[in-house]
Structures are given as C-alpha cells and as structure tokens.
Amino acid sequence: MSAQAIGCGPVPGAAPPGALENTLMTPQDHGAAVAAETARFVAAVRDADPALPVPDCPDWTLADLVRHAGSVQRWFTVLIRQRIQERPLGRDVDLRLPERPEQLPDWLAEAAEQAAAAFAEGDLDAPMWAWGADQHVRFWIRRMLFETLVHRVDAERALGLTPEIDPELAADGVDEFLTNLPFAAPFAPGTAELRAEDRTVRFARTDGEGDWLVRLRPDGFGLDTGDAAADATVRAGAAELLLLLYGRLDRTAAGVELAGDQELLAHWFAHSAF
Description:
Number of domains: 2
Helix content: 40-55%
Strand order of the largest sheet: 3-2-1-4-5
Order of helices and strands: HHHHHEEEEHEH
Structural class: alpha+beta
Shape: globular
C-alpha cells in the first residue's frame, strides 16, 4: 500500500515561496477532520454490498476501497509513531485485515481510532521525514485527511449519493494538493512533464477566499506568489476545485470556468494525476 498516493492503483526539498504559509487549517483541525471524514466513510459503506463497483476507481469494489483507505491510515500511523527521519525502505505493517469483507467498515473505524491516539501522543510539529514539502508530523495528518476525504467521496458516489464537502475543508485540500504535487514524481511520474517556458496557471475559488498560482518552468513547477494575470485560469467552488484536481470532476463540468491558454490547461490536466 503506497504511503504517497491517493490514486486508485495498487497500493523532498524546500517548500516553494509562501506555500506553507497558505495552510488554512491547523494540525489539530486536520486530526479532528480525519476522525469526522472516516466516520462518514464508515457510515456510508457499513450496510453496502462490498462487491459494489467504484466507478471513480476502475476495477475496484467498495471492499477494495475501504481496504485501501484503512491500510493507508494504519501505515501513516506507524510512520507518525516512529517519527522516521529518512525515507523508509519497506512498508511492513500488521494491517490486521478482517476475514470477511463485511467486517471492513469496523476495521476502518479502528484505523481512525489508532490514528487519533497517535496524534494525541506527541508533538504534531515535530520534525520527521515526509515525501512532500512539509518535513513534520503534521504533513502526514493532513495527507491522511485528504486521502480519506476523497475516497469517502468515491464511496458515496458509488452508492448513488451526492457527496457534501465543507468548502473551507476543500480549500485546504486544494492548497495541500498544489503544495505537494511538485514532490510527487516518484509515484506520479507524469508530473515530471509539467514544465514550460515560464507559464502560469491560476486556480481561483469562487465561493470564498482562495487563490493559487502555479508556475511551470523549464526545470519543474510549483506554487508562486503574485496577482498578475495568469496564462490560464480555472475558477470554481472549493469543492469543485478539489474534485477537479483529483480527477473526480471533468473540467467541462457545470460551475467550472476555464479561461486563457487551453493548450496549457490540457497539458496540466494530462500530467497532474496524483
């Protein structure tokens, strides 16, 4: 089970200017939201057919989705407790997988309880290795949150439900995604193609404060500062921006406004899969 990706497949460096200062929630907020999102996830799947396909994750069933989410939570919890200082060489962890698929929701709930205990045991601002921009314990809590939230949405959509995402939480998720995407090449190789001769893409929230400027350079890309006109702009509500970035919403969807260089936008969306 990958410690990095939120995708539906088998399972660093200095931060760009201003990236970490844009964090919209505290580590304590993130920890509480992990518990809340997991509870919503568990409630959605508890009485559902484990064999139900998940359209957002081709070839996966609900059982696969829950198993993935719980495994990631347990793995991240191990990393947090160990306060590792360099990239781990293996991913050996006792997942304590249940024998029957119908037991997976309770197993996922237990994973969240273990995570909450780990959050409460130590300093969330303590330094530790992370694959992204923020080399502290808090990185893993924030990453666990959006891993869980997006897959909760996957589950609800598979069940024919209309997911709800708190706009402020979604805005924090947009920030987390764009802050860490430049470091994702080891498990999202397509991101290495996000290069250009000084071109910019702006992601602008339409239902509150939130504006992120990404600059593509010949040697890579990352968040930048400034309010100058971008070469291309994506405008949408925070929840729509989050789902768009994670490939759960098409950029032609209602409520998504695209402006500027359409080839640049096509290039971004073709290579930014997480």
